[in-house]
Amino acid sequence: MVGIVAYGAYVPRLRLNRQAVYDANKWFAAGLRGLAKGERSMANWDEDSITMAVEASRDCLTSHNAEDVRNLYFASTTHPFKDRQNAGVIGTALSIEQNLLASDVGGSQKAGTSALIAGLNASKGGAPSLVAAADKRMARVASANELNYGDGAAALLCGTENVIARLVGHHSVSMDFVDHFRGDESDFDYGWEERWIRDEGYSKIVPPAIKAALGACKLKGSDITHFIMPSPMPAVPRQMAKVCGVADGAVRDLLGATLGDTGSAHALVMLVDALENAKEGDKIMVVAFGQGVDILVFEVTAENAKLPKRKGLSGWMARRKEEKNYMKFLAFNEMLPIEKGMRAEFDKKTALSVLWRKRDMIYGLVGGKCKVCGTVQFPRSQVCVNPNCHAVDSQEPYAMAGLEANVMSFTADSLTYSPDPPAYYGMITFPEGGRFMADFTDSDKEQVKVGAKMRMTFRIRDNDTMRGGFKRYFWKAAPV
Amino acid sequence: MARGIKDKVAILGMGCSKFGERWDSGAEELMLEAYKEAIADAGIDANQLNAAWFSTAIDEVHVGKSGIPMSTTLRLPNIPVTHVENMCASGTEAFRGACYAVASGAADIAIALGVEKLKDTGYGGLPGGRGGPLQALWSANGTAPGNFAQLATAYMTAHGVGADDLKRAIGHVSWKSHQNGAKNPKAHLQKAVEMDTILNAPMIASPLGLFDCCGVSDGAAAAIVTTPEIAKAMGKQNIVSVKALQLSVSNGSESGHNSWDGSYFHTTRIASKKAYEEAGIKNPRSEVSMFEVHDCFSVTELVTMEDLHISETGKGWKDVLDGFYDADGKIPCQIDGGLKCFGHPIGASGLRMLYEMYLQFQGRAGARQLKDPRIGMTHNLGGAPRENVSSVAIVGRYE
After folding, report:
1. Pairing outcome for strands B208-209 and B203-205
2. Domain ranges of chain B
3. Tens digit of pLDDT per residue, chain A (480 long)?
């Protein structure tokens, strides 16, 4: 029996107040007033789809061993790299490389569900598959998309042991219905008229597919307890459900008021939301539209209630900071030619050969533990750092990404270049041993104190814009 | 411990350029300004120099690599010129090289010259972005103020010192240096500043404000050294000799091992202890007449006075507030204005500290002349509290 065995999610801490966006843009686009409600998630400057997918994957793997994963699919329409496997970065960050098939899935809003179907099929024989989906879509200033989109990620572990949601069946149709597109030469979506999308797209493509899926699963629409269907048009999921006999009460909230539409990740984000609230026996239908439609049907098992606690979508949603500064949103997204000063000009060229040699240190935050004296240290070095040991070639790899650290000393630096000044950084120490001078992220003045507990998080350290945007990733410390 | 070089080397002459934003000069002009004064003071010509040590720290923004820039600028007679770099302690490194050459007998007369021309970068503060390709991938994106600000955070935590008390103490450190710098015609900043101005200045890296940070200066300084015997034979009076030179370099334990609490300089404690031993000083608090320490930041000076074993650990801030280190205090510190006001052209700073000592011992310090100083100590630090090179020198009258 294949199905989902664990879930995880990630939502950036910042929530952009839509009224603040509207207030800045209403002189130009007064028609957006109806959308000026609630808030959308907003990635910090050091977050992208890879970093969010890493966080969601870590959340998902709370109770599972990363090294058991045999397939890793990463769905996004905003992969940071066109040629360099994005899923491979996630794998290295999770310290899984060996025996791993990693694959990027993209190109459509249903990339998340397509990746999930691939993951479930790959796990039929028992090999666990991790499916991560994340999107951080750009939108033009004063557009509806700018208000509707959100940044976020979900991850699902597929397998055959301790299944929390059994796959009942899946069904897909693929057709080149272009409701919108994002060409290779643009950062932004270009969309056609909504009424046409609704009448000729959703209404004609989705119901037959749902009915086919229900038939294949030997279910009726009324059997569905959770109906998940992301759509930029909030009324559409209810219409589709109604046509297919799915109870109106089964249609799940699109999370638009508090999160926004997380793109190709959104179907899986909503699935995590449903799993957090589902009971044994519940039937979950996931419908993702985008040049066709993917449909998955799950039945929740008794294992769902036994899944060890994790942050999940609700946990990350609860970690929230309102952002009313629209200018900051624009600057974080490189939509504003802000004066960064000469300190922003320092060359960020990455020595790829060094990155390869040290990838477990840089991407995995793997330090060392001395076999002679037991001292944990970062980075791992050939000569033990303990002044009373200094044993040579004595260290074994020691994973530190999952450890909590304490702030020993810190500063808020207004001199160094940071996209979000002042830059907080400081010496963090791990109770197990080991310390290093770390950049802090998602930090406020009130939170950063000597002795504060910090959690390590995978982030963008630098962006080498001179070479087409090579993102340097490393781990930062964020208040617990 | 090794035998040491106490009284084996004497300073024959010194020179120091005007420090400051020397828009009029490149590194070459600054070098020559210090060199001309030193060579005239020593009463020799270039052909009497046997060897040279040349210090810079950020030469990629001015002279570049090797000993050639010094040899070419000064038209030295094809003698050995060794280019040294040890971050902000580079100046004392050049001096150490020249002294060791003389002490060993490899040279009769050697010169140490340090220079830094920083005001051609187009922005304030030190150039960043150095460090190797691995460091660039993981070390925090910090600055010097940010690294030293953490010394203040950790010091307050370790000793239970309140933020207001520390702010006043480090404010007094800078206030005192401004008082002293006002009397130094070669200093970059020659203006006394009110305490209120210091305490209310904008933050650079909390808790360090603008006046807690030394500026970035252009400048050069030089020392010509020989043996006391040669100096005497040349008819020199009031000979100043080297009593001790010690350097301690971090080995990663502070930055990587949890035994260090961030509140002190591990290396300075070691280097100063060895230096007192080399110089035969038993009780530094009563034997040392004056200090020139590496006050790159006000808190650095405060903590350093504890690590030099002058103030009790955790109590240095009280000595500072009591005026112990003021010009009219028990042991004046930074009587020339220090890095804070004389300025900090990196590669020259260690030599600049020795220049003030030399003038004071010879009674040539003008308006800031101290009464009868006998022993002086310089402390020249490179790097950050967690990883640094700490260089100390003790000089005094040759008796």
Report:
1. antiparallel
2. 10-119+218-233, 143-207+238-397
3. 999 999 999 999 999 999 999 999 999 999 999 999 999 999 999 999 999 999 999 999 999 999 999 999 999 999 999 999 999 999 999 999 889 999 999 999 999 999 999 999 999 999 999 999 999 999 999 999 999 999 999 999 999 999 999 999 999 999 999 999 999 999 999 999 999 999 999 999 999 999 999 999 999 999 999 999 999 999 999 999 999 999 999 999 999 999 999 999 999 999 999 999 999 999 999 999 999 999 999 999 999 999 999 999 999 999 999 999 999 999 999 999 999 999 898 899 999 999 999 999 999 999 999 999 999 999 999 999 999 999 999 999 999 999 999 999 999 999 999 999 999 999 999 999 999 999 999 999 999 999 999 999 999 999 999 999 999 999 999 999
Domains annotated for chain A, with CATH where assigned, are: 3-332 (3.40.47.10), 342-365+400-479 (2.40.50)
Which of A415, A467, A473 should we substitute to test contact with B (largest number of B Cβ atoms within 10 Å)? Answer: A415
What is the CATH code of the structural domain delimited by B143-207+238-397? 3.40.47.10
Residue A226: its H or E element: strand A226-228
Q: Which residues pair with B10 in a beta bridge?
A: B226, B241
Fold of B10-119+218-233: Peroxisomal Thiolase; Chain A, domain 1 (3.40.47)
Helical residues (DSSP H) of A358-459, grouped into ranges? 359-362
Q: How far is CA B198 from the centre of its chain?
A: 23
Residues 6+ apart with CB under 8 A from B74: B31, B32, B35, B46, B113
Gap between the Cα atoms of A417 and A345, Å rounded: 9
> What residues have CB less than 8 Å from B178, skipping those under 6 apart?
B189, B191, B192, B193, B337, B340, B341
User: Of B138, B154, B252, which is closest to A385 when you measure between CB atoms?
Assistant: B252
For residues B276 and B1, give the distance between their C-alpha atoms in angstroms, rounded to a whole number.
12
| Distance (Å) from the alpha carbon of A475 to chain B's nearest alpha carbon | 8
CB-CB neighbours of A198 under 10 Å: 17
This model's pTM is above 0.80: yes
Helix (H) or strand (E) holding B174: helix B163-181
Instruction: Give catalytic status of residue B344 as yes or no.
Output: yes
Burial of B238 (C-beta count, 10 Å sphere; 0-12/13-18/19+): exposed
Query: Sign (positive/negative) of CA torsion A427, A431, A434, A438?
Result: negative
Which positions in chain B touch A474 (Cβ < 8 Å)?
A: 137-138
The mean pLDDT value of chain B amounts to 97
> One of B88, B99, B333, B341 is an active-site residue; which one?
B88
Question: Under 8 Å CB-to-CB from B370, ≥6 apart: which residues?
Answer: B289, B290, B332, B335, B360
Q: Give the rounded distance of the alpha carbon of A301 from its chain centre.
A: 25
Cα(A291)–Cα(A176) distance, rounded to whole angstroms?
5
The interface pTM score, or ipTM, of the predicted complex is 0.94
Distance from the Cα of residue A172 to its chain's centroid: 24
Residues constituting chain A: 480
Kindly state the tokens that stand for A277: 């609230």
At A151-199, the pLDDT tens digits run: 999 999 999 999 999 999 999 999 999 999 999 999 999 999 999 999 9
- Chain-centroid distance of CA A64 in Å reads 18
Rounded to 10 deg, the angle between the A203-216 and A235-243 helix axes is: 50
Catalytic residue among B62, B266, B294, B344: B344
Residues of B in contact with A414 (CB under 8 A): 202-205
Q: pLDDT tens digit string along B90-146?
A: 999 999 999 999 999 999 999 999 999 999 999 888 887 668 899 999 999 889 999
Residue located via tokens 């039945």: A299
